[in-house]
Amino acid sequence: MSKILTIGEILVEIIATDRGDGFRAPVPLIGPFPSGAPAIFIDQVGKLGQQCTIISRVGEDDFGYVNLNRLEADGVDISGIEVDPQGTTGSAFVRYREDGSRAFVFNIRHSACGQLSLNDKTRALLDECTHLHVMGTALYAPSVVETILAAIESIKAKGGTVSFDPNLRPEILGSPGMREALTTVLSKTDLFLPSGEELFLFANAKTEQEAVAELLAGGIKAIVLKRGEKGATYFDAQQTISQPGFEVEEVDPTGAGDSFGATFVTFWLAGKEPSAALTLANASGARAVTKAGPMEGASTQAELEDFIANTARKQA
Ligand code: ATP
Ligand code: MG
């Protein structure tokens, strides 16, 4: 069986329980929830019973153990997560505004996962992996970019594959070297998983169809475009498959894209037909938004199949 790898931030997420603009006054909070886009992704992969691992770092504190314990319980090989006795685990405070947008306070760059590098242990782990998933959010610090680029080279050199979710937050797009790093990753990508307008980030084209053609001509094998509650579309050189979202009540959208990506990548690598992988991924994203907390809505395959059999699709 192939082993899926991701690299990047592990955080706890602490959520304001009421809506409003940011954190300049005391607000009631709930958390810590295990989080970090790469962590959410790999947890969902583990829940599907697929061998997987993450290269990251946490501090030797409760926020670190919240993540280590959850990832291990859900089937992720946690041997690539270094526990730094001097470090502090990363965190994100999130508050939803009335309009549904989010205000964040992040501690990532100066947290334990702000410094990553390959060592003998993680190099050996990398040798076991045949697929790397890159999250755009993970390109937050130069040492992490370097580690990801080195891992891409290693995976590609042995005939492995790379998937890429640009997962852009306005907060990270302005980081020095960000655009260059994203462009380099894209040039090595087999499966591209943008959300909405992210499709146009690396294309000159103005229409969806032209952007897809441009990206496929550049060497990407398949694109899956996430459309939030509207579902998702799969594109490759031969076919385009659109599917609507499932009818659910959205409680917390954070993590939907990561769960969706994890499920699509897992079944795509396992050789499932794109349409079947797309249905499972749509179900995974939909289930994710029904639970408060980014990783709380992760699904087993049985849960996805049961959900698909019993849930209506949204009308276009
Ligand atoms: P994230 O905020 O996690 O980065 P994203 O922008 O990458 O999310 P979205 O398009 O918001 O990704 O969501 C990913 C998938 O999750 C969608 O393609 C859809 O399948 C599912 N999904 C998201 N929101 C809803 C919803 N309200 N109802 C049903 N399905 C949803
Ligand atoms: Mg996303």
Q: What is the straight-line distance between the termini?
A: 38 Å
| Mean pLDDT across all amino acids | 95
Q: If you compute it from the alpha carbons, what radius of gyration comes out, rounded to the nearest whole angstrom? A: 18 Å
What would CATH call the class?
Answer: Alpha Beta
Quickly count the domains: 1
Q: Specify the oligomeric state.
A: single chain
Structure description:
The mean pLDDT is 95. The protein is built from 10 helices and 13 strands. The protein has one domain: Ribokinase (UDP-N-acetylmuramoyl-L-alanine:D-glutamate ligase, 3-Layer(aba) Sandwich). Helices cover 35% and strands 22% of the residues. The longest helix is centred in the middle third of the chain and has 16 residues. α1 crosses α8, α8 packs antiparallel against α9 and α9 crosses α10. The strands form 2 sheets. The chain has a 9-stranded mixed beta sheet, sandwiched between helices. The chain has a 4-stranded mixed beta sheet with strand order 3-2-6-7. It has 316 residues and is an alpha/beta fold. Adenosine-5'-triphosphate binds next to α8 and α9.
